[in-house]
Amino acid sequence: MADNRNVNNVTVRASTSSPFTINIENFSKRIKLLYSHWKQFKNDLWGGSEVFSIATPPHSEDLRYLKSSALNMWLVGYEFPDTIMVFMKKQIHFLCSQKKVSLLQSVKKPAEDALGVEVIMHVKGRNDNGSALMDDIFEAVGAESRLDGYDNPIFGHIARETPEGIFLEVWEEKLKNANYQLTDVTNGFSDLFAVKDSLEITNVKKAAYLTSSVLKYFVVPKLEQIIDEEKTVTHSSLTDDTEKVITEPARIKVKLKADNVDICYPPIFQSGGQFDLKPSATSNDDYLFYDNTAVIICAIGSRYSNYCSNVARTYLINANSLQSKAYEVLLKAHIAAIAALKPGNKAVDVYKAVVTVVKNEGPEFAPHLTKSAGTGIGLEFRESSLSLNGKNDKILKTGMIFNVSLGFQNLQIETNNPKTQKFSLLLADTVVIGETTSEVVTSTCSKAVTDVNYSFNDDEEEPQKTKSKPRAADTLPSKATLRSVNHEVSKEELRRQHQAALAQRKNEETARRLAGGGSEGSNRGPLKPSGELIAYKNVNDLPLPRDFMIQVDQKHEAILLPIYGKMVPFHIATVKSVSSQQDTSRTCYIRVIFNVPGAPFAQSDPNLQKFHDSIYVKEVSFHSKDPRHISEVVQAIKTLRRQVASRESEKAERATLVTQEKLQVAGAKFKPIRLSDLWIRPVFGGRGRKLSGTLEAHANGFRYATSRHDERVDIMFGNLKHAFFQPAEKEMITLLHFHLHNHIMVGNKKTKDVQFYVEVMDVVQTIGGGKRSAYDPDEIEEEQRERDRKNKISLDFQNFVNRVNDLWGQSQFKSFDLEFDQPLRELGFHGVPHKSSAFIVPTSTCLVELIELPFVVITLGEIEIVNLERVGLGQKNFDMTIVFKDFKRDVMRIDSIPTSSLDGIKEWLDTTDIKYYESRLNLNWRQILKTITDNPEQFIEDGGWEFLNLEASDSDSDNSQESDQGYVPSDVQSDSVSEEEDDDSESLVESEEGEEDDSDEESEEDKGKTWEELEREASNADKEKGNESDSEEDRKRRKMKAFGKSRPPARRPRGGGGSLPKKSRFR
């Protein structure tokens, strides 16, 4: 038993200076429970005893679990070595040293108040064997028995505990020589300890948290590092290192006092064919074995305030089919055992559930199944009376805690290595029985097959391994050779073969999807029109005119204009623009232009459509001698118009939002997981100073809030599509990024991407601009501070991510399939996804760029194909076009990718089973997708996506008649051109509206000629010069040169349908 004993945060050591206190409330409750249980089950469990004694042996450095020590800690909170306790109906006797007596004096009054029992202390001297004091106790026992009419009382004791030391040996001898009927009361104590109260359950949960944290955050990373770096480490050294971590919880950021924790047993590590699944197993001095088909068993147990917990996991290295099947069967049996732990069931039912699963799923493993599914656990590591075997009929009750331990012993496989011919499997968890279901308190340690089965590629032994996850080493650019010296297939050839298989599968998938109802996705319908504009419901609402001049009514969002002696109201939404100017005579003019039917950009206004036959005021002008008043009115109208437009825009955005569930804020039982001092993107609106906030994980979602009450964002777990954690490596920020299924509002912005970040380094400018020495102590210290800050931020983020991942691992979130993904920087490449260059990085499920705005998050599962464009000799960069399965969705272009990244990107795409094509020119994807959706049957008949196959096109070009005709330019422009034109047209609309707000032109008609008029004038001018054909060709060439080479569709044969050609021709 360990040296330190603690209950209620009080440390107990053998020192006179240490403060000792007994929890009186706890003692009173449990002494009542002890006497009540003794009275109720006196004949069944307590052997009919009229009196019983507990003799606790001296302190020992060995780990051991005794009923006498357990009663000490359960009743008074401490273990009292060399102490005898005798419990009678009306008296309790303590025989121990003076120091222990002084501590036990505090229980006299509580015992008398609770039960009316007198507590009598007997102080044993240092060199006294206590014989005389024992006689006094026996005399008291005899006196009470005679009063009850018994000459020879039944005396209970723990018969299985052998007395240690002279003191207890004398007691044992006197007890046997006394005229008593001795009986064993072990079963009574076992049943008493079986059901735990809330304090005991809390202690077990804390111990379980420590145990699972040690396994997850120390043992598993340690094993992965050993295997990855191919180190030679012994089992015993792993045991020593793990034991140090258990006794020092701060090393893994577990906030439990080291004085309160201890090990249940030395951690067990087994591998190399020698396995022992008994609880008494130990780690040997052999080296950890992790070759192919190796099995590693880890078992860890820790205690908190003397309450035990246990967890065991088996890790498989390149497992074969037999090992994988055996583990899957064991996992199903283990889950069935936990599910059978319900109040009212019998202990035997748990083992029967295990046997049923094994016989149904893998009957060949039944002879190797352990004889028990575990035991009860608490103050003792193994509560034998609660064994989950095939014979125990004990009824399970709420509050019982079990170590559910299950395994297969000595399974055999045929291998060349004797260390892998025999293997065993073991799984163990600590489980608390609740009111209706059981709770696995060590569930943070995953036991899923995908998390314990490690696959390491070894080209020498297994040249063909299943590709499960892209690795950096596999995607580095390499020299592509057709055949090596020993005629092995090159990596490029393997990639081509895999791509050919992908092409066939992709065309089949696309054909099925198009035949089943077109492309994926939903059509985006128009926004609902806003309501009817009403400034004043009746004449009485009009404000009283102060003066006969223009007024702005902020409350009713209207302007009142003096017209023919009356104040005429106009809703601010009817105003298109307002401007003012001053002439040479210092007379000021104000001009108000209204929205009217027929004007550009006014066709979508529903209010104009509703009253299209009415007569409208197009514009009004007023003059004044007061320029200050004119400028104030113009400014007030513009401000009101901007506020209303912003509100209506936000209202329209919110109208399209999907209703979210309500956030369930964490209560007292569940403390929210918190990460502080974060900034958010997109930022909240408003003109005030920006504030950092705190991100909290609650029961069903996240909440981010600043100190301002209106700056708050709730993100539900059910709305999360992807979650990313990107630590700062070559960037200035460490971030968490959430990509959502449905839009939410952040401030007044509608978004599907929400990001929380911290700047890891401050931007500092040296005054004077001079260079500082690399050996400057201040510079070195500053760099060290920056590194420390960066590491601390990364650690805080990592802890938050780990805890949230553990939360998402609970059963209620399994359907969401959530886990923080981390970008793989070694697979990243530079490109231009929008307007500026960025570093784009793949993850296991997405392609992302999370630093520059706007963000890029592309789900790999939504990609149909990828086309690599402008790929050819002499090109320094190329473009990537991503086509989505939803053909109504615009393609995603990433331009100007360095050619040096081409091989890496192709390898990554091939590894993730994404079909890619290569072309020498850019394609007009908007027209291509329109053609596919208009005639999907023809697209399928023509070979699907194979018209993009550059190699097939080149191989057929020699026999083509069109190949001699050369490349014929087309008016069809590239997708990038069309997108830029669309962007220009949209920005044109926005700029015209903005200019109209602040412009000083006289009328709308004087703003310039239209594009059509300019085009006609240019065409007429060309005709007059007589070189129309030349100018047409020159214009096409200039357009091709300005926007990039455009690859037109090949000519279609006359009479053909509206489908794409099977193969494109290139010269």
Automatic annotation (TrEMBL):
Comp. bias intervals (Low complexity): 962-976
Record bears the keyword Acetylation: no
Histone chaperone RTT106/FACT complex subunit SPT16-like middle domain ranges (all copies): 829-919
Pfam families, A to Z: FACT-Spt16_Nlob (PF14826), Peptidase_M24 (PF00557), PH_SPT16 (PF24824), Rttp106-like_middle (PF08512), SPT16 (PF08644), SPT16_C (PF21091)
Residue ranges occupied by any FACT complex subunit SPT16 N-terminal lobe domain in the UniProt entry: 22-189
Domain FACT complex subunit SPT16 middle: 550-704
Keywords of the record: Chromosome, Coiled coil, DNA damage, DNA repair, DNA replication, Nucleus, Transcription, Transcription regulation
SUPFAM superfamilies associated with the record: Creatinase/aminopeptidase
Main location group: nucleus
A GO molecular-function annotation: nucleosome binding
Chain intervals with Basic and acidic residues compositional bias: 485-496, 1006-1028
Gene Ontology cellular component terms for the protein in this record: FACT complex
Compositional bias of kind Basic residues: 1036-1054
CDD domains in alphabetical order: CDC68-like (cd01091)
Assembly notes: Component of the FACT complex, a stable heterodimer of SPT16 and SSRP.
Similarity section: Belongs to the peptidase M24 family. SPT16 subfamily.
Task of the protein: Component of the FACT complex, a general chromatin factor that acts to reorganize nucleosomes. The FACT complex is involved in multiple processes that require DNA as a template such as mRNA elongation, DNA replication and DNA repair. During transcription elongation the FACT complex acts as a histone chaperone that both destabilizes and restores nucleosomal structure.
Protein name in the entry: FACT complex subunit
Organism: Salvia splendens
